[in-house]
Every structure is written in C-alpha cells, then in structure tokens.
Amino acid sequence: MAGHILITGAGGGIGSATARMAAARGYAVSLMARSSGSKEASALLGEIAAKGGEAQVVTADVTSEGDIVDAFKKAADRFGPLTALMNSAGIAYNAPVSALDCESIARVMAVNVVGLMLCCREAVSYMSTEAGGQGGSIVNISSMAATIGGRPGASVYAASKGAVDVFTTGFAREVADQGIRVNSVRPGMIATKMTANLEQDAALKKSVEASIPMKRIGQPEEIAEIVLWLNSPAASFVTGAHINAGGGGFHIASS
C-alpha cells in the first residue's frame, strides 16, 4: 500500500479525480462525503473497487467538528493512520459586495476555511511524530482567485481561498519539524460541477477561455497529478508552497 489518503469533497471533480488516481497508484482511499449514500460517493466507491482499489466512505459534514473527529477515527480504524490529507471540500458564492448577506458569507467561511482548519488539526493528531505518528503530507485546495480577488462577483470566495493560503503558510512552518509537509494548490478554471454553466453558454465559455493565457479550461486530472506529486517522496523538501495551476493565470479579455 502506497499510503492512506483522506479526501474531503471527494464527490467533486477534483476530489474524485484525485481519489481515482490515488487508488490506481496503490493508496487506500477514505472518501469524506456528507452522506455515504450519495450518488457520487457510491458511484466512486464502486468504480474504485471494480478496479481492485481499496476505498471507503466516511460520512461527515465539514461544518461539524464532531463529524470531522468521527470521520478521521473511522478512516484510521479501517486503513490505519493517515499518511496524506487532501482538503478539497469547498463551495462557491457569487454576488456583488452590495448584495452580500451574512448567512451566505458565514457558510462559505465555514466550509472553505473553518472545516479545512479542523481537518488539518485532526490530521496532525494522526501524523505528527511528536504524537507517535510517522509524518505525512497535507494538500489544501486553494484557488487562483486568491491571488487577485477573483473574477467579478467572487470576492467572498476569493477571500476564503486567500485565508486558506495564509493558513497553509503558517501551519506548514508549525509542523515542519513533526514530519508533516503542508502545501496548497491553486487551480484556475477547471471543468467541474462548479463551472458546469460554461457548457450551456458557448459565448461565456469562449470569453472565459480567452481570458486564460493557455486559452483553455483545465481538467481535474491535471490538478490530481499535482496533489499526488506533493504527497510523494519526490516532493520531500517541499512545504509551505502554493502551486499555481491555472494555465498562466487570467486577465480581462478585450471586447
């Protein structure tokens, strides 16, 4: 077994792509999902098992501290201590600042920031050499939006991902001597459920592609490759890094 990876947001495009790739490369995979009976989690679990991989679903809402604690324990009870954690759970929120509402802001921060921090806390309790663990790797999924404040209407989402990057930097320094490496990946526009509206609007998709230097939208598998590289011995001296994976960033396309 290459290791044991827990993936939050495993039903999403980037999370599921990483789960498939990790299982194919010998990892035991714990898929954290809000409901073990969800269509996406069940399908992914069956797909991995059909190919001879080891996987399980651990039910948890990342906004619930108790759920998170229980999920990590269940994951370790079956596959042993974690060697890798991928924090992929996240939600978007699009609204101009003049139309923001408190409940929506709180929800974004609870999922994208607080839940991620609590998952990192739990991972340390299993990985830290100071606590008897064998070390490990944590990858937090951020966003290119964190680097410029996001596209119009996405300032709250961008702020949440900016918080992920700052937390990753400080956290990485804190646990570097405990055998734990912590990095973030900043995807740009990736073909997932979050960007599915582009497939229904050819003009919008063309405009978005024109704003990306590489002139295309990325694929979830391209992000999964980076995550698994960061978790591998090939990245053994990499911690506190923020890897941009956005086709060169983006700029405002000319009209």
From TrEMBL:
Keyword RNA-binding assigned: no
MF GO annotations: glucose 1-dehydrogenase [NAD(P)+] activity
EC number: 1.1.1.47
InterPro entries: KR_dom, NAD(P)-bd_dom_sf, SDR_fam
SMART domains: PKS_KR
Protein name: Glucose 1-dehydrogenase 1
Keyword Transport applies: no
Domain Ketoreductase: 3-193
Keywords: Oxidoreductase
Family: Belongs to the short-chain dehydrogenases/reductases (SDR) family.
One Pfam short name: adh_short_C2
